[in-house]
Write a structure and sequence with these properties.
With 224 residues, the chain is mostly helical. Helices cover 63% and strands 0% of the residues.
Amino acid sequence: MLLGALTLVSAGPGGVAQAQAPPTPPAPDERAAAREFSFAAYRLRLALVAQKPVIEQRMQAGLDAIGSTPCEPTLVEIIALPLQRREEAFPIAAAVAIAPAFAVMRPAFERFRDELERVPTGDTALRSGRAAWRSSVAHITTFPPDLDICGTLERWRRSGFSRAAAPFGLGGDRLGPYAASAATKLAAAERRMRELGVAPGPARRFSGETLLEGIGDDLDRGSS
């Protein structure tokens, strides 16, 4: 009898039970999301510190190459460019010099990206910061581990430093406006993480400002 009564109560017109709408999933816990973002950045920092010797070796090799005789014609012509073009070209040349170092860091950054993707969040600033890292890691994946730095820059010089011919597709908005946009998004994510209870240091680490702190500080920038 009890079962029959329950069936009638739950039935719609004609005694046919009505399908219930699935329950609305709970909103993401944004404080937890911010913490997970900071934990992922901490794990990335540990991975980079563990690679410090090889990262610094590759950074030094890049600096040595840029200061060497084979690279000199390119640097001389970059210096002679009009101001706006020169300001566009120098960061690209620097990116070429450190590309092999970032190639070594690629697996750590890819793990970081994947960890961020698994964090549930609907927060606009956190999602924007995650998107900035997604794009940044995509840039890193274009850098080859082995590179003839001067030869790469020489080929670009022969193109007249064309944006279209910039190494690794770094011309146009790949460095200047892109970097400014990414920095803005990451700074906003850092502020939001602090609002959600993350300490200033871990939040700043997520923005990228301190990820490489202490790595490359003692390189010989005057070697040739």
